Amino acid sequence: MATAGKIPRIIPLHDHATAARDVETQPVGTPLIFELSSDGRSGADLAPRVAGAPSGAELLGPELCREDLRGFPELSEPQVMRHFLRLSQLNFAQALQFYPLGSCTMKYNPVINDEMAALTGFANLHPCAPPHLAQGALELMARLEAALAEITGMDAISLHPAAGAQGELTGLLCARAYHRKRGESRRKVIIPDTAHGTNPASCTLAGYEVVVAKSNSRDFIEASEVRRLVDSDTAAMMVTNPNTLGIFEPQIAQIAAALHEKGALLYMDGANMNALMGVAKPGHMGADIVQLNLHKTFSTPHGGGGPGAGPIGVTRALEPFLPVPRLMKTAQGWTLDSESPDSIGRMRSFHGNFGMLVRAYTYIIALGGDGLGQASRLAILGANYLRKRLEDHFPAASAEPSMHECVLEHDLEKRTGVSTLEIAKRLLDFGVHPPTIYFPLVVHGALMIEPTETETKEVLDAFVVTMERIYAEALNDPELVKTAPHALKLSRVDEAEAARRPILRWQPK
Amino acid sequence: MATAGKIPRIIPLHDHATAARDVETQPVGTPLIFELSSDGRSGADLAPRVAGAPSGAELLGPELCREDLRGFPELSEPQVMRHFLRLSQLNFAQALQFYPLGSCTMKYNPVINDEMAALTGFANLHPCAPPHLAQGALELMARLEAALAEITGMDAISLHPAAGAQGELTGLLCARAYHRKRGESRRKVIIPDTAHGTNPASCTLAGYEVVVAKSNSRDFIEASEVRRLVDSDTAAMMVTNPNTLGIFEPQIAQIAAALHEKGALLYMDGANMNALMGVAKPGHMGADIVQLNLHKTFSTPHGGGGPGAGPIGVTRALEPFLPVPRLMKTAQGWTLDSESPDSIGRMRSFHGNFGMLVRAYTYIIALGGDGLGQASRLAILGANYLRKRLEDHFPAASAEPSMHECVLEHDLEKRTGVSTLEIAKRLLDFGVHPPTIYFPLVVHGALMIEPTETETKEVLDAFVVTMERIYAEALNDPELVKTAPHALKLSRVDEAEAARRPILRWQPK
Amino acid sequence: MRFMPQTEADIAAMLKTIGAPSLDALIAHVPEGLRRRAVINLAPGRGEAEVAEELCALAAMNAGASGYASFLGAGYYRHYVPAAVRAITARAEFATSYTPYQAEASQGTTQAIFEFQTLITQLTAMDVANASMYDGASAAAEAVLMARRVMPKRRVVALSRALWPDYRATIRTYLSALDGIEIVELPFDNTSGATDLSALEAIASDALLCAVLGYPNAFGVIEPLRAAAEIAHRAGAMMISATAEGLSLGLLKPPGELGADIVVGEGQSFGLALQFGGPGLGFMAAHTAHLRQMPGRLVGQTRDRDGRRAFCLTLSTREQHIRRERATSNICTNHSLCALAAAVYLSQMGRSGLRELAERNVELAHAAADALAARGIRRRFSGQFFNEFTIATPRPAAALEAAERRRILAGVALAPDYPEIADGIVIAVTEMNHHAEFDALADALMERR
Amino acid sequence: MRFMPQTEADIAAMLKTIGAPSLDALIAHVPEGLRRRAVINLAPGRGEAEVAEELCALAAMNAGASGYASFLGAGYYRHYVPAAVRAITARAEFATSYTPYQAEASQGTTQAIFEFQTLITQLTAMDVANASMYDGASAAAEAVLMARRVMPKRRVVALSRALWPDYRATIRTYLSALDGIEIVELPFDNTSGATDLSALEAIASDALLCAVLGYPNAFGVIEPLRAAAEIAHRAGAMMISATAEGLSLGLLKPPGELGADIVVGEGQSFGLALQFGGPGLGFMAAHTAHLRQMPGRLVGQTRDRDGRRAFCLTLSTREQHIRRERATSNICTNHSLCALAAAVYLSQMGRSGLRELAERNVELAHAAADALAARGIRRRFSGQFFNEFTIATPRPAAALEAAERRRILAGVALAPDYPEIADGIVIAVTEMNHHAEFDALADALMERR
Ligand SMILES: Cc1ncc(COP(=O)(O)O)c(C=O)c1O
Ligand SMILES: Cc1ncc(COP(=O)(O)O)c(C=O)c1O
């Protein structure tokens, strides 16, 4: 800011008189859409009712009809557009900022993906359209299933689940059904201490008791630990590979063997598949079930928290239990089959998050087999490069080689009281979205960094410079870091306050 | 800024190592696309050449082929996207900010317009497609011509010109052809002292000598002044109505009569048509020629300076001179006719800025006849409201009633040395795009304000508060205003420096 | 490859820094047996033009997406999506950001979700709504699980048989792993098409956990929600209403007013394209009393250090990343961008527009029903309906085929899911249908009578 | 109406402030005779869905836009437009801003234009380029006017007859009002299809102002620009080159290297859809020596008060808003958003991609010519070509019709514009054409032989 010290606080003009009125005394944020509303405005003009015909309200009668939607927004179309356009500019996003959020694979989302999903033939297709009028969609799903099977080395794919967590639950319910079918009712699932929170949560939903496996001092799971825990009551073990420290589980094959020996299944959490394409296939590791997060590895947009898609792959033995509907090839072409007697059933309506499937398929054929393999290699390169360059002040939490992400530590908390959270907030001032922090839980003050293959070396270098700078700031001027961010429209947001006194909706005055 | 005084200058992380490296010592702007380039990167993958076939370069031989495009950008697709997305956020724009730029009609540009122009049937249509395969496009043009004729009260419309200024030149050349056809070669065009710069410039291009008519003390043109100037050597007079002070020319009919009496034509600059829809038709005022700026009145986007479209309307007498091609109805449907013996010829390739015509037509049918009339009335309401509310410190330059815009003055330059430019720059700090300034030239330090009908009363009220505040600042802390803007990514840009030592392209180091 | 910026020189420099001789050296620790077989046997990468060509060809193979007058509904509805919705959701700032963990860098997303939450509470007349679920069916399943957390001792779940088959199936799957749950299907009244409440009455005991009814239901019939809620409440059980046609809430009495304790539904009608059935938008609203048992993300209002209003994810101690196996749900990624679309859509339609649109849907659907009735095609059920109704026709499959030949997708046959309604076709009518289509529909349906 | 936010209450309050009794009172000073007749007799306004329906119906009436193998060129070329170009130009910040008069609020636009200017100088090998013109034809006309400003005493303008008819016609119109200009049309060599330079030689005197040649020309032939420039320069005249297929500059020797003094052209190939011929993108590049005579906007680099690099419109003393009747041109609104599209396109294609694409176009066009030649359809001219060539066929109109029946738009007949080439069809081949189409094209063209 040119003469920042001299001038009073300035708030941009909003569609809201108060914003400009009391700029110094009354700091406000962006008005809510409800606060921009004014009685009698409208952003939509509808074709008028057929003259003389009774209205919808008359047809249904007062017994069935509600009062007027008091408090609902009343704005013109330009106001609506301006409001949400302005909101958009308050976000950091992968397309605009470096966003090395570990475990989230914030890679570039090709714009062509969205265009393809918006093609009339896909976007306007009703899920109940007769299959012979939807062969393109079904064919796409079939090609995507085949591609994902090839990438993972699994025998069968279900595109049904809506996200990674739903994929986990789907997979665990398949495991359950599998054991049931064999007349067994196993009650436990083993989960490493480094697991993502969705893993234990999915276990509970699937009716399993969680047994925690401890990572060894080198931050991976030893087959011996699994052997110690697994028994005839173990339904499965969920292993994230690479694990949440970014480390390839070196004993994965032995773990699988240990499980299989006891009749338990290996569930592989494939959220980190961006490390493995063309590098190692879950199917070859002995995985019986794997979920993929298309919104991570396969470049569908995260959308500020979804929608995603969480297909699962399984071995032949588990295929009968996959959710319905299943794609089926008939003489008349593709159709959707819901008659699958051993299936766990449905996890949702219709046929999966099809719009996301289009995007993922578009991405996969753009990269091709070779490109996918290269993507994983370059993702690994970037993570190892950052790890190496940052090692002086942000040493890796583990001595093991990193895959597509690295988890770092630091001594600032001890030296100057600057926490990982504060480092993260300070990064915002430099236009960088912070890494994932405080995860995995086993690493104190973790910084989990996943640069992805779509970032340049220059960006990584600049990130290193920025991190080094923050380290120096933390030593020389810790308050500066502790009170970050300073360069955004907002200062530090009080999250504790939000939880203490929850305000979860706007209320008219 | 939370603790703005305390912290060093911060520059967001760019795809450019230097940005973060020397943040304090080396202030930089956003890197140029060329500076993000790196040998061997590519943002496009092409289908490979047919194996074994000679390359394009081989087919043409070294004599015809250039050296490699040294210095041309080499970036990945994500880099290109990120670069231009970031650039976009440096702009003010009507969709996001109040943009009361006088004479420019920065109204809301409906997003549906752009979608319609992007329909395959329009976007992928080649201009040389046989007319029977382009009937939809031709029909749209015919409907748009009819609508514009109805709105302006003119007999015939040509959609050919690419922008307002080209419309002016087209119109003047038609006037010239008209006089020629009558065996006359008139050499002069009368232009008011308030005219937009394109008017005299177009006259010169059309081979005319400019004669300046003086506005009277009430800021409009008197018929007597026209009578004083017009003679048998006068080809036409160009009148902007409402004029650039936002005043409806009260003697327009008498002016037309005075011109017609001497065989001269009335050219009406229709850039301010947003004041006149359903209020007064140029055809009824006696205009022989009028140009419309579809990117003003008819909501096609300004695009940071175009593309626009500048159709002209003329009386029956001038129709034969309109540029080719002309739409023609035949038994087989619409066709484009270039056989118009008296036509001035072409001003450009093909059939006009068709993509803009689609948008304008979409807008016109959305509003309908009633809506267009209401739009002008509400535009006039907004301008008069601002004029009234600002009159204490920013009195209107003219006592005449305002139409869709008002031109204001102020005494700050005299009282505290704060100039109109500085007021404009200070407005930026409040998130308002400044009005047009220093135009019309006849008003000292003019602020020309055109709020348009698509802004809310709340926005206008907030603008008033902001202007009053700046007035107070100028009195109490003139330096604050003189050194604005303070709240943007850049401080005041040195335009003199740019002109003194022109750097018009990037050069490799 | 156009998405990956690393030049040969970059790779070499980075490897040098790392101290690795090659890219493959970085993965040398991955067991050789895995690496050797890991090659992905798919066609090589392609340029954007070639990719677009393949996808356009596939899209063109979906004849059902255009060129047909469509009366398909059955849980997913064809409404006009305004351009503003597409323009906003296409914003890279919204589309390519993650779940808003860093509040300061996510005010766009958090505020929009806060607005979405508010809009849903207004539509449903409930206290609180979450940031979205996957879809209506899974939201319904999560609602039952939530009810179970509120009243862990109760075990009977009453599902209306007139609830969409997908919803019932999803609920069954979600509950399949839970011990001791008993699902009872409430029959529907064969005349009115509404749930037979005497069946609910019959099981209304202190074992009853909740009753789940569609509102309107799978036959298009507007359920007597208030009466159902009263029965459930008398037994101390919870009433869960599920709405697949979100638009109906613009006109019908809100479930919250009728006594629903948890309100879920599908928000696809609020600005989302059909997309062959997904992604849609699950919504869930509840009473403050049950807030801590709600699944899913919640955005709350707070302040920044300088007192400015701000928004952030809150009450996350309910969630998997904090509470792990004791979380209220495993949901992580939800349908945020769809919630944004809904927020834009509902804001643009607005107070009067949404109601007017809902009314228009009723008017058109009733006009269609009248047009069919005039030709002797009668409604299968007498219950009042919103924009969807069931007709009775002797040979539904043949009728649908006949209609298809006339380029009409006349509706969805009930028989596959309801063998007891062998003659039923569910017909949805929205503002996208024209009066002129109704006679054509009647003609087509009569062809094979 | 959805675009206008004023409620009844707003209007009343505003009128009250103004002190006017009604909206119409605000226009009472407009002569009654005008107001009375001003009602616009058009259909009433419509909702977005209805508007979209009408436009979609019109779009669907343009069968030529899809479903045909197209070889149409003749000044406008069908190239693949990458999604990134659409995504960027759709940004509201770019699309809804005005000409960047306020530099501080327009750095997005000004920097992008600065980059565009640089890209054009690189492509053309010239010193400076402006911010854009309307299209190639008007840019060519402005170039001649510019030459005239540089050398006001010279009066003969030599236009190659092999320059596109639209360009020649536009130049004629622009010059029509100027005193004393003489336009001489240079014939083309009937064998090579290139401009007959001996005709230029013949008029190369100190009256010669400039020569304008297409590069490549309207027949697709690559003109001997260097030789033409030498002749012009010997006479002290200026050489103006005009390129309609901007992509050709990715491979052909740049006009600046061959002696062109002003280089103009059409940038439609750089990421703009066909759009029935507009908006396109005129570009213009020149030498620094003639900078002050250039028409159009120019963006220059400068600094802000704190030394940061910044960009702004500059040298505006050339322009209409400052210089009025003595301006270098009347151009005001130009084609800025199209220039942005080109900047994105060229950046994405990049150094190697643009050349590769240009080469691919040459390869395909030559393959097509070979395929036709193999079937006895010969090229009309011997001159070397880029991606467009002229064939000779006895009855072009019949041949085009025959092709159309096979869903091929085979090219553009020359006869309407060149009666002397009654047998010519200009065929353009781009990366959007497939090898498989070439035989079908040959079949079609042979059908009526
Ligand atoms: C390792 C891991 N597993 C599972 C998930 C859950 O995936 P989703 O958010 O798609 O439900 C995540 C998401 O962050 C993850 O990182
Ligand atoms: C009064 C007036 N006339 C003419 C023009 C020129 O129109 P264009 O910029 O479309 O060439 C303008 C544009 O600002 C104008 O305000």
Q: End-to-end span of chain A in angstroms? A: 37 Å
Question: In the CATH classification, which architecture of the largest domain in chain A applies?
Answer: 3-Layer(aba) Sandwich
What percentage of residues of chain C falls in helices of 4 or more residues?
Answer: 25-40%
Overall mean pLDDT of chain C stands at: 97
Give the count of structural domains of chain C.
3
- What is the β-strand count of chain C? 14
| Structural class by SSE content of chain C | alpha/beta
Low-confidence stretches of chain A: 1-27
Annotate the secondary structure layout:
The complex is a heterotetramer, with two copies of chain A (509 residues) and two copies of chain C (449 residues).
Chain A lengths: L16 H5 L34 H5 L16 H12 L22 H7 L2 H4 L11 H18 L3 E3 L5 H18 L6 E5 L5 H8 L3 E5 L9 H7 L4 E7 L11 H10 L3 E6 L11 H4 L3 E4 L19 E3 L11 E5 L2 E5 L16 H36 L16 E3 L3 H5 L3 H10 L6 E2 L9 E3 L7 H20 L1 H5 L12 H6 L9
Chain C lengths: L7 H11 L4 H4 L5 H5 L11 H13 L8 E2 L12 H7 L2 H4 L11 H18 L3 E2 L6 H15 L5 E5 L4 H11 L6 E5 L10 H7 L4 E7 L10 H10 L3 E6 L11 H4 L3 E5 L15 E5 L12 E5 L5 E5 L6 H4 L12 H39 L13 E5 L3 H10 L2 E2 L2 E2 L10 E5 L6 H13 L2
Parallel strand pairs in C: 1-12, 3-4, 3-5, 5-6, 6-7
Antiparallel strand pairs in C: 2-8, 7-8, 9-10, 11-14, 13-14
Helix pairs in contact in C: 5-14, 7-14, 8-9, 14-16, 15-16
Bound molecules: pyridoxal-5'-phosphate (2 copies).
